[in-house]
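Tip: read the tokens left to right.
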């Protein structure tokens, strides 16, 4: 056997990047989540060539303290949690401190950030994990991160990228859902100079929904709202007549995080039950709030999957709220019905 070595940071980051940065949309996800965590009210996303040549995210959030900018690119460096106890009450979208170092390991990254309204900040350029430029830089308060030539140093990964259309499709899908999750943030998405999405940031979810699905579809939606000792739920759902051929029209947001949840999708489908034709799915945007301790978001590096600690109660609650909104008379057995 060869001797055991501890891998250097650069190599460790490149390995971690394999999990965190699957494709250009992962970069968009991580950068936009950071912008949201920083309290931004406007986020501008510029993409070139499906994100393979450029992903640039500019926000007007808190900014990164100039002293901390190099640290942000270290692995497990985060301002969002500091102790093991914090892991059980995560309120931010990020917490693993892995995104920036992973992205910087497999791309050319330029980060400009300033916490000052006076505009004095710092500019850091990192290529393949190595700092190539570090200087004072005047910038408005907020952060501007440009990720160029993704996977330029990992040809095996680059080879697996699909067409530009496929990659921008993934990006647009993700940005649309984030916009639905955060109607209070004004978001723009541009690809090769063309505008794909602009939301006003008014806080009105239906308005954001209309920007994505069109005004006619938006007008036909029903609103849902429900309270439970552990959860609150609000959102919009389509009438049973308005169906889709797949589940992509369902967006579930838990504590501000867009997630994929088999459990919640099942509850939604159960609520519509026989109202839907076979193999047809509703449109829905559901925002679920709960105490962070009822939720484990540390299941996968992408944090798209979560675990709920009181799953049966949650299922029943969601189903009941939707059944009520649909105005059906169907009885759902169990304590949530209160009968
Ligand atoms: P995480 O989000 O898990 O903390 P990241 O690698 O994504 O890890 O970011 C590292 C740190 O850099 C964050 O904890 C935050 O302090 C800072 N940061 C990154 N992006 C931004 C941003 N857009 N605005 C303000 N701070 C940021
Ligand atoms: Mg992050």
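Filled-in amino acids:
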């Amino acid at each position: 056997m060869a001797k055991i070595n501890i891998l250097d940071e650069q190599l460790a980051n490149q390995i971690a990047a394999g999990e965190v940065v699957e494709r250009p949309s992962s970069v968009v996800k991580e950068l936009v989540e950071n912008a949201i965590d920083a309290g931004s009210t406007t986020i501008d996303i510029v993409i070139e060539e499906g994100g393979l040549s450029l992903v640039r995210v500019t926000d007007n959030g808190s900014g990164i303290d100039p002293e901390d900018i190099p640290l942000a690119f270290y692995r497990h460096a985060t301002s969002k949690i500091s102790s093991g106890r914090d892991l059980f009450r995560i309120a931010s979208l990020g917490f693993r401190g892995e995104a920036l170092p992973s992205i910087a390991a497999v791309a050319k990254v330029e980060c400009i950030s300033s916490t000052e309204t006076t505009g004095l900040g710092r500019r850091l350029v990192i290529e393949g994990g190595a700092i190539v430029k570090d200087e004072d830089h005047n910038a408005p308060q907020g952060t501007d991160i440009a990720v160029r030539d993704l996977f330029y140093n990992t040809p095996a990964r680059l080879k697996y990228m699909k067409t530009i259309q496929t990659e921008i499709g993934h990006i647009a899908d993700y940005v649309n859902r984030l916009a639905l999750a955060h109607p209070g943030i004004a978001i723009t998405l541009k690809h090769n100079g063309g505008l794909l999405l602009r939301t006003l940031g008014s806080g009105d979810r239906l308005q954001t929904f209309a920007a994505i699905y069109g005004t006619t579809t938006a007008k036909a939606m029903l609103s849902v709202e429900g309270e439970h000792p552990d959860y609150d739920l609000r959102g919009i759902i389509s009438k049973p007549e308005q169906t889709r051929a797949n589940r992509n029209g369902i967006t579930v947001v838990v504590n501000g995080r867009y997630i994929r949840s088999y459990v919640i999708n099942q509850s939604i489908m159960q609520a519509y039950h026989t109202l839907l034709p076979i193999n047809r799915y509703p449109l829905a945007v559901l925002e679920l709030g709960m105490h962070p301790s009822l939720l484990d978001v540390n299941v996968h590096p992408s944090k798209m999957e979560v675990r709920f600690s009181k799953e049966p109660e949650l299922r029943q609650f969601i189903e009941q709220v939707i059944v009520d909104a649909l105005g059906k008379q169907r009885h759902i057995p169990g304590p949530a019905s209160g009968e």
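Residues 329-334 have pLDDT under 50 and may be disordered. The first strand starts at residue 42 and ends at 48.
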